């Protein structure tokens, strides 16, 4: 009766990993009980998730084709775009959030454009804008940029507002550490970097102050 903190199914967001094909349900070895699923299977899981009282899902995409610029990320017929439509159609009350990042779609597995072995921040922002817009057009309820490029929340906000999506919220990973704890997610989303690591754009886990600075930076820029 006097407990201050209670966790219940409505506090959770269920991650879904959408892949191409039909009838595909591939176990993810580092995340027991989770699967890479094709759109038809993802819809079944989404129904089940909603029946358990979980109010939202977050979609990660495993595309059929990966390239240098991750162009499948903003393909209107991409796996995530198709899954958004199918889920909103089948379970309209379920909140559909989308992971916005390039690493699932790039051949090199980095979260942005790579030139001469370096990840470029500003050109990547344009891709994140395109990806967010394409998710919003497909019917996403919220976008969640997970890459940690500087300035992406503002860039995405401007892009969404310019096409009439000012009510679509952005769930920002304002402070994200370059951490081994993301290992299973990289497995699940097949987004392991093919060279180097993410330290040039994600934070050192030893930096506590920097994390709060990053959060303030985003709030100031977007002026919430
Ligand atoms: Zn990423």
Helices and strands in order:
Layout: E1 13-19, E2 25-27, E3 35-38, H1 39-51, E4 56-62, H2 79-90, E5 95-100, E6 113-115, E7 118-120, H3 121-138, E8 142-145, H4 152-162, H5 183-188, H6 208-222
Parallel strand pairs: 1-3, 1-4, 4-5, 5-8
Antiparallel strand pairs: 2-3, 6-7
Helix pairs in contact: 1-2, 3-4
Can you walk through the features of this model?
The protein has 224 residues and is an alpha/beta fold. The protein has one domain (9-222): TIM Barrel (Alpha-Beta Barrel), CATH 3.20.20. It contains 6 helices and 8 strands, in the order βββαβαβββαβααα. The strands form 2 sheets. A 6-stranded mixed β-sheet has the order 2-3-1-4-5-8, covered by helices on one side. Strands 6-7 form a two-stranded antiparallel sheet. A hairpin with a 2-residue loop joins strand 6 (113-115) and strand 7. The protein starts with 12 loop residues before the first strand and ends with a helix. The relative contact order is 0.13. The structure holds zinc ion (ZN). The site of zinc ion has 6 residues, from loops.
């Amino acid at each position: 009766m006097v407990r201050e903190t209670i966790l219940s199914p409505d506090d959770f967001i269920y991650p879904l990993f959408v892949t191409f094909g039909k009838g595909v349900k591939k176990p993810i070895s580092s995340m027991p009980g989770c699967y890479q699923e094709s759109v038809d299977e993802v819809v079944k899981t989404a129904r089940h998730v909603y029946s358990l009282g979980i109010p939202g899902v977050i979609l990660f995409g495993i595309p059929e084709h990966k390239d240098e610029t991750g162009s499948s990320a903003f393909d209107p017929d991409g796996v995530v775009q198709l899954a958004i439509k199918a889920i909103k159609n089948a379970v309209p009350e379920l909140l559909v959030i989308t992971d916005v990042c390039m690493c699932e779609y790039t051949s090199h597995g980095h979260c942005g454009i790579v030139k001469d072995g370096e990840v470029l921040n500003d050109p990547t922002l344009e891709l994140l804008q395109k990806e967010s817009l394409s998710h919003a057009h497909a019917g996403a309820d919220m976008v969640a940029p997970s890459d940690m490029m500087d300035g992406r929340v503002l860039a995405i906000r401007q892009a969404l507002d310019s096409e009439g999506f000012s009510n679509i919220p952005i769930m920002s990973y304002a402070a994200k550490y370059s951490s081994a704890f993301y290992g299973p997610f990289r497995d699940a989303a097949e987004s392991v970097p093919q060279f180097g690591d993410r330290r040039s754009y994600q934070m050192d886990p030893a930096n506590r102050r920097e994390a709060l600075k990053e959060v303030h930076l985003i709030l100031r820029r977007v002026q919430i």
